[in-house]
Amino acid sequence: MNDVVPRLAPLMAQLDISLSMALERMAGMTDDEYRWLPEPDAATVVRGENGRLRPAPVPDDAPRTRSIILLTGHLYGMAKLRAAYTVGECRLTYDDLDWPETAASAAPALTESWAEWRDAVTALRDDELDVVGRCAFPWGLDPTLPVLDIVWWMNRELIHHTAEIAFVRDLYARTA
Q1: What's the DSSP call for residue 115?
Q2: What pLDDT shows up at residue 63?
Q3: Residue 171 buriedness (CB in 10 A; 0-12 / 13-18 / 19+)
Q4: Any idea what DSSP says for residue 54?
Q5: Topology annotation, domain 6-175
Q6: Are 120 and 87 in contact (CB under 8 A)?
Q7: Tally of helices (H runs) and strands (E runs) in the chain
Q8: Is the pLDDT of residue 1 over 70?
Q9: Which tens digit of pLDDT belongs to each residue from 21-44?
Q10: Spatial distance between the Cα atoms of 163 and 176, rounded to a whole number of angstroms
Q11: What is the pLDDT of residues 127-141, one digit of tens each?
Q12: Spatial separation of the C-alpha atoms in residues 123 and 118, rounded to whole Å
């Protein structure tokens, strides 16, 4: 593990505890629960033309609940891709990713992908944290933001989607 730049330390501590809480909250999950739709038109995944899982198209922009498999895939993909576009060769695409297909594969996939993101961020020098566009991730606002802002955003995403996963698990336990 890389030494952490002092001003990055609180965000890395937040990432570590948030990931730990996510993994704890996912413990014991079944495949039925992982794929369960909390409502008939919940956002979920489909198998794409390349055989890999991807978000299913939704008919409109109406708010909807999301399946755990979709939330996990999103968290996995965003960490893998941002790590690659921060310190990697910037060639990885969504189509290259194999989202975790089972409940048993979800926690290891999240552990691996978020460790890659953490390693990418902690490999940077202090002055690189302020560089706009240092993370070349082409989807989203990354090219317009300093790395430190992206780290904050990634933590927010992890916390937010972990809360959604917990909520869906609670719903499943009471209705399925």
Answers
A1: H
A2: 86
A3: middle
A4: E
A5: Four Helix Bundle (Hemerythrin (Met), subunit A) (1.20.120)
A6: yes
A7: 5, 2
A8: no
A9: 999 999 999 999 999 999 999 999
A10: 19
A11: 999 999 999 998 889
A12: 8
Find where tokens 């055989």 sit. 51
Q: How many CB atoms lie within 10 A of CB 136?
A: 13
Q: What is the pLDDT of residues 53-89, one digit of tens each?
A: 999 988 788 889 999 999 999 999 999 999 999 998 8
- The tokens describing 15, both together, are 């990432």
Q: What is the pLDDT of residue 58?
A: 84
State the Cα angle at 128 between 127 and 130, rounded to 5°: 80
Predicted TM-score of the model (pTM):
0.95
- The Cα-based distances of 64 to 34, 36, 59, 170 in angstroms read 17, 14, 11, 17
- Calculate the alpha carbon distances from 131 to 24, 118, 146 in Å: 34, 17, 5
Q: Which amino acid is at 132?
A: V
Map out the domains of the chain as residue ranges.
6-175
